[in-house]
Specification:
With about 375 residues, this protein is mostly helical. It has two domains: about 150 residues, Cytochrome Bc1 Complex, Chain D, domain 2, CATH 1.10.760.10; about 190 residues, Cytochrome c-like domain (Cytochrome Bc1 Complex, Chain D, domain 2). The chain is built from 13 helices and four strands. The strands form two sheets. A two-stranded antiparallel sheet has the order 1-2.
Length: about 375
């Protein structure tokens, strides 16, 4: 298949042929189309089995539906964190510290990659992900492909692939450019259609919407709202802040990846810029809720399989009835926080406990945040 000027809004197939970037004339392709090809290229992994799209599946809202954590290119290695959706990631601000001293923004669960391009450069070199030994090895793979040689030369300058550092930076910027396209941030959910007056919410969905934005009943929007208006058409449903919400250890995942039970993931404190600050231990970045209903499992360690369980997990902090503190997926009480000292107690204990009707309403509302392209996944 030959593709000249790639129209991302037209192709939407996310499958490019080997000659997709064949060069003729000046520049018959864009940095975005180069980024798309790189995003789907398994040749950028050690065993040529894994691409960015392997763990960020375009048919699954750019998340990994295969399990709690992703299997590496070697077919054996297993991470200890759940791969987040890549959708709307381009709207995340760079990692930074606010005037109040709190951290926000950045990519990955702990913000260790400040920008989208920084994030794109991580997985190819991660030994339990794509497994390439170094940047030079990745660039050598690019040089194997005449289409890449032509594209990088035309878009970034002749001889770019002879400078490993510059070439690797160009590669990550191309991938980031693809992730900045409307494909990843379409704002095309039922909720968006509702804001435009093109759809009506059901009574249950509307109750969920009111509860979600209510400072009296749930306080969800304290962390899951970035805009000032409840009707913001570009709302990403995260303020990109970091909190310890007491997510329990995923014992099953620990057993699967051979990590000792009781090992603590320090989250934000592991970010080099935070430099191990004890006050940041156990904190993880607030994720977007867009497409949340189709991008499980949930939490940084994939410990919950069902979205309703997540709502019940939050609800247990305010519940007096012991039965409301049970994880429906296990039948046992929700596990204790691994790090209690930094727990966001004030935020988590805000408002009254919710009954089943209100829990279900919140889930129904969050389902309306599913982009139209993935709405069929709600029925699976």
């Amino acid at each position: 298949m030959h593709i000249g000027v790639l129209s991302l809004t037209v192709t939407m197939s996310f499958v490019l042929g080997a000659s997709a970037l064949a060069a003729e004339g000046d520049v018959p392709y864009s940095i975005e189309s180069l980024g798309e090809r790189l995003f789907f290229d398994v040749n950028l992994s050690a065993n040529r089995t894994q691409a960015c799209a392997t763990c960020h599946d375009p048919d699954q809202a750019f998340a990994d539906p295969r399990g709690m954590a992703s299997i590496g290119d070697d077919g054996i290695s297993l991470g200890d964190r759940n791969a987040p959706t890549a959708m709307y990631a381009a709207l995340t601000p760079e990692f930074q510290q606010g005037e109040d001293g709190s951290w926000f923004g950045g990519q990955f669960h702990d913000g260790r990659a400040s920008t989208l391009a920084d994030q794109a450069g991580g997985p190819p070199l991660n030994p339990i992900e794509m497994g390439m030994p170094d940047e030079a090895a990745v660039i050598a793979r690019l040089k194997e492909d005449p289409a890449y040689v032509a594209a990088f030369s035309a878009l970034f300058g002749k001889g770019i692939l002879d400078d490993t550092n510059a070439a690797y930076a160009a590669m990550t910027e191309a991938i980031a450019a693809f992730e900045r396209t409307e494909v990843f941030s379409p704002f095309a959910s039922k909720y968006d259609r509702f804001l435009r007056g093109e759809a009506e919410l059901t009574d249950e969905e509307e109750l969920g919407r009111l509860l979600f934005f209510s400072e009296q009943f749930t306080n969800c929007n304290l962390c899951h709202q970035v805009g000032d208006s409840l009707m913001d058409p570009r709302e990403t449903f995260t303020d990109y802040s970091y909190h310890n919400i007491g997510v329990p250890e995923n014992v099953e995942l620990r057993e699967m990846n051979g990590v000792e039970i009781g090992t603590v993931d320090f989250g934000l404190a592991l970010n080099p810029e935070v430099d191990g600050d004890p006050a940041q231990r156990g904190k993880f970045r607030t994720p977007t809720l867009r497409n949340v209903a189709v991008t499980g499992p949930y939490m940084h360690n994939g410990v919950f399989a069902d979205l309703r369980t997540v709502v019940l997990f939050y609800n247990q902090y305010n519940a007096a009835d012991e039965a409301r503190k049970l994880n429906p997926e296990t039948g046992a009480r929700f596990g204790a926080p691994q790090i209690a000292g930094t727990l966001a107690v004030e935020e988590l204990t805000h408002g009254p406990a919710l009954d089943d009707r209100r829990v279900d309403a919140l889930v129904a509302f969050m389902k309306t945040l599913t982009d139209a392209r993935f709405e069929h996944l709600l029925e699976d």
